[in-house]
Each structure stands twice: as structure tokens, then as C-alpha cells.
């Protein structure tokens, strides 16, 4: 899920934009949260630092024609992958968005008729939703880790097992088809990030696509490449469900 922010100081316009967003969410059954703000202060108060979001920003607020630009710079700094749309009458300020490296997704001109505004807002939501789904898919297809200042990745289809040992706290051991590696990490964060990784005990995560069989009596999980893994009593039922 991601959030759509509506920053607009005109109550009627903000209500109209929200109606468009709400209807688009309902029709397409999107998992999107809508956040409204009538001024920059309420925007900053409601802003949540997440991985991703779509922002419809009024360019001029409280007599400041660059208020939306300042907000956009804040968003880009705190959420580098955000999608930003300016809703404005100041088309001439488009150059400044390039100069400040804001990279907006779109401009919605308030001078256009309501039908065109509606179509642009709907299209921007649809494009953002598609990008969001594609980015999730891409992240789940590749497992990434960092050693020092360098980043590494393993195709998820090659990953078999991740585990920790008491002798090396704060480090995660990786086993895959082509490599074994140890890197600084935390199993809890990796479990939350990758949906196809299953916790089978307090110190092990397995790639569910690399499971071959499970001995429920021994509580032993058999993975590809002759890799074996113990399963805790608490996790045994979750593992058993994979074979039903």
C-alpha cells in the first residue's frame, strides 16, 4: 500500500480532487491511503516517511508561488522514489522543477476544464499504481545485501537459505546455488521485505520456492542442493500448510 497526498488550500478544489481519487481507488480496488492537507504546516504534520507515495501539490499557497516547489524538494529528499504532480496555474514555473531536480510525473493545470483535470488525475494514479506493483515485483525477484559500501544481489530463484549463528551475532549467512556469503543483517527486516521468505525457526529463513519436502516427525525441511533445515515446533504447522 502507498499514500496519495493532496495539498490544496482551496477547500472546494481539494474536495473535488479527493472525490476523483476516492472513486478511482474504489473502482479499481486499489490499496491506497488518502491524506489531505490544506496548508504546508498540516502537510508536514501529516507526512509519513515511507518508501513510496503519490503527491498532488498546489504550486501557490499563502501568496507564495513557490510553496509547492519547496514542499516537493522536501518530499524528494525524504522519499526519493515518490511520484510528484503539480496542480497549478503557473505553467511557467515548470523550468524550476528541472533546475531543482524534482522530476515531476505530471502537471495538472487548474485552467483546464474539469473533465481534463479528472482524466489527468486518474491517469496519474493508474501510472503510479502500475509502477508501484512493478517495483514490488522487481524487488521480490532479486535479493539484495550490502557489505561495507558495496551492494550485491542474488536472483531470488537461486537463493535457498538465510540463517544466523550465536557465534556471529548481527550477521546473516546466505546459501544459494552459486555462492555462500556472510553479511551484516537482520532476519526480521529481511522477512518483512521479501514475501517469499519463510521463517522456520528463530534463526532461519527459507525460500519457499526451493523447498522439496518436509518430515513432520523429525521437523526437518529438505531444500534444493541437499540443504536441510530444522523447523521449530511453533513454525511446524505453517510449514505443513505449504504441502496441503
Features of this protein?
15 strands; Rossmann fold; 36% helix; 5-stranded antiparallel beta sheet; elongated; 244 residues; alpha/beta; OB fold (Dihydrolipoamide Acetyltransferase, E2P); 5-stranded parallel beta sheet
Describe this structure in words.
With 244 residues, the chain is of the alpha/beta class. It folds into two domains: 2-140, Response regulator (Rossmann fold, 3-Layer(aba) Sandwich); 148-241, LytTr DNA-binding domain (OB fold (Dihydrolipoamide Acetyltransferase, E2P), Beta Barrel), CATH 2.40.50. Helices cover 36% and strands 32% of the residues. It has seven helices and 15 strands. The strands form four sheets. A five-stranded parallel sheet has the order 2-1-3-4-5, sandwiched between helices. The longest helix is centred in the middle third of the chain and has 28 residues, at 114-141. The chain is elongated and about 70 Å long. The chain starts with a strand and ends with a helix. The model has no long low-confidence stretch (mean pLDDT 89).
